[in-house]
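Dear support,

We are seeing what looks like truncated structure output for some complexes. This example has two components. We would appreciate it if you could run it in full and send us the complete C-alpha cell output so we can diff it against ours.
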Amino acid sequence: MPDTLPADSVGLVSPATLHVDKPLQLDCGRTLNNYHLIYETYGTLNQEKSNAILICHALSGDHHAAGYHSMQDRKPGWWDSAIGPGKPIDTNHFFVVCPNNLGGCKGSTGPNTINPETGRLYGPDFPIVTVADWVRSQAVLADHLGIQQWAAVVGGSLGGMQALQWAISLPDRLRHVLIIAAAPKLSAQNIAFNEVARTAIKSDPDFHEGHYAEHNTIPAQGLGLARMLGHITYLSDEAMGQKFGRELRSGALQYGYDVEFQIESYLRYQSSSFVGRFDANTYLLMTKALDYFDPARDFNDDLTATVASIQARSLVISFTSDWRFSPLRSVEIVNAMIKAGKHVTYAEIEANQGHDAFLMPITRYMEIFGSYMKKIASEVPSA
Amino acid sequence: MPDTLPADSVGLVSPATLHVDKPLQLDCGRTLNNYHLIYETYGTLNQEKSNAILICHALSGDHHAAGYHSMQDRKPGWWDSAIGPGKPIDTNHFFVVCPNNLGGCKGSTGPNTINPETGRLYGPDFPIVTVADWVRSQAVLADHLGIQQWAAVVGGSLGGMQALQWAISLPDRLRHVLIIAAAPKLSAQNIAFNEVARTAIKSDPDFHEGHYAEHNTIPAQGLGLARMLGHITYLSDEAMGQKFGRELRSGALQYGYDVEFQIESYLRYQSSSFVGRFDANTYLLMTKALDYFDPARDFNDDLTATVASIQARSLVISFTSDWRFSPLRSVEIVNAMIKAGKHVTYAEIEANQGHDAFLMPITRYMEIFGSYMKKIASEVPSA
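Here is the complete output from our reference environment:
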C-alpha cells in the first residue's frame, strides 16, 4: 500500500524461525518436546549484545510488530507507531525482537500447526500455555540470539503481563521493564467477558469441539462474536460515541432488525475481517492465558512479595479511559513495587481511546515512552 | 416458597387481562388492530381514582412486580423490594398497576402470541415497538381503569425511559415521574452491547429467522449468550469482584477449557435459567426499543426543548457504580429539566451493585424513594 516506505519505518521485513528440540515443561503439566517460534527483528544487535529489546504481543497480536512484508501491504506491523527510526523504540539504536507466542496462529507452534507426535494438527489438543510458559520460551529465543540480558522487555495489555512476568521470573535477564495498559491479574469482570467470548466460539456448531479444520470449516459466527465483544472492551464509551455516536447507517430509521446505527456496521466489519485472519483455538488459548495470569498466586496473593525479586527498573503506563485494565490496575503494580523498594516510574496518560490507546501515537504517551527509552539508549552503545 | 407471606408483602396476586379492539398505530408505521395487555394491580383505587401508580418494567421484566402467584413460588415479583405495605410504593395508600409491555413474552400480545390475522404465532413478524408505543398502549389501559391522571409513573432502566416518555408525551396524565437508573438515549457502547446480543441470537442455527417455535426449538445458545453478556453490564466490576473474585470452582487450577472460576459458573447458571423463561424474539424486540429510544430526536437533539412539555414533578435517581447508564446520563436528564425550568429532584445513590442496584433494597435509596412517595401520598387520599 505505501508507494514509498515512510522515512521512520523499519522498512521491508521478513520473519525468521527458531526450531527448538529441547523440551519445554509447561505450567499445565504437559511438555512440548519440540516447537518453533517465528519472530521478527529490527535494527542491529551491537557487539556486546546489550541493545536488545524484547516486544511481547497481546491477545490478537503476532511477531509482525513493525514495517511491511511487501509493498502491497495495506498496513504496517501492529506497533509501527512505536517502533522505527526516531520512534520511541528507536531502531537506529536498538535491536528489537518480537516473537509470535506459543499457541499463536501466525507461524509459531500452536493449534494450527502439526503435532509431530501424531502427524496431525494440534487443534484443541494443543496444551494450555501460560504467561510464564511464554517467558520461558522467549528466554530460549534470547539464548539462541546470544542475548543474556535484554536492555528492556516491553509490552502492552497481555504483552505487559509478559513483561511483568519476565521481571519477576528472570530478574537478571533484563535491565528495564515497560508494562503498558496491563494488570497484575484479571478481575472477575475481565474473566466474565472472556467466558462469554469462549462460549460464543465453543457453541458455534462449526466449532466441532475444536476440530473444525478436519471438517473444512471455521466457527466464523462464534469467533466473530468474540471479536465484536472484544472490540467493545478495547474502546471507551467516549471514543465510540465520538466516532459513531448514534449516526444512522441509512440516514432514516428503518425500524427493523438489520443494521440501523453506524456502530453496528463497524462491529460487523471488524468481526468479519478478524475471522479471516485469526484462529479460534488460539483465541480460546489466549483468553485462558489471560485468565490464569496471576503471579501473586504463588506468593499468598501478596503482590509486594511477588515483585520482591525484580531487579529491572520499571516504567508503568496506563490510560485514563481504559476500562478493560483501568489505571487503578496499573497502580496496584506500582504500589507493590514501591512497597518492595523497587525503582518504578508511573505515567497515567490522558486519552479517550480506551484500552486501544496503547497502540496509538498519542503525543504525551510517545513523549514519555520515548524519553524513557532514550535513557535506556544512553546506557548501551548502538551497533 | 414462603411458609407464610411476609407482613410487608402484597400477598397472593393474580393478573388480569385487557383486550383492546381499537387499533394502535405504531411508530414503525404498522398497526395492531387488536391486542391484549396482561397486568397486575396491588392496593385499592380510591374513589377519586387519584392514587394510582404506574410501574413500567425493564428489558426482562414483566407485569408480576410484587407478591406471589402461589405459596409454591420461589421468589416474589421483580420489584417486591419497593412495592408493598409500608414499602416506598406503599400499597396501603396507593393503587399500583403494572402491565407486561406489548411485544413481551409473559402474556401481553407479542411474538409468542397468535396473530389473529393469520391464526399463527407472530414470531419475528411482530412489529418493532417503541417506548412511545408502549406509553400509548399503557394510556389505553389507564383509560380502561378510569385513571385520568396517574399519581406517578415509575420505572427503572428501560422502565425509567417509559416514565420519561410518559411525562413528555402525555404531560397532563401524570403528576409525578420517577426516572431511575435510566438515560435519555443509548450511547454507541450501549447499542454495541445490544448488537452483540442480537447477533448471538440471530446466528444461533436454532433461531430459524425467528421461526424457531415452528421448528419446535429455541435458540438457547444465542439467548443464553445474550443473557450472560447482559449480566456483565448489569453488575459493576466491583460487585462481581466482591461476589466472585477469582475464586476457583474446584479449589485447584485445572488448566482446561471447562469452568475454572466461580464467575464462569455463575454466568452459565444465569444463562441457562433465563433461556427457560424468556423468549428470544422478545429479547430482540426489547433491545431494539432501547436502541430506538431517543425522545430528543424529534426536537433537533435538544433535550431541553424535549422536556419543555413536562408538567409532572420529577425524581431522578442514579447509582454510582452503574456503568450501563451511569449517573452522568441521569444528569443529562436533570440538567435539561433544570434548563427548561421544571421541578426536578435528583439523587445519586452510593452503591456498588452496578445497574442492578435499582432493584435492590439499598437503605439510602429506599429512604429517598420512600420519602418522595410519601409526599405524593400526602397529596391524595387512600381508598
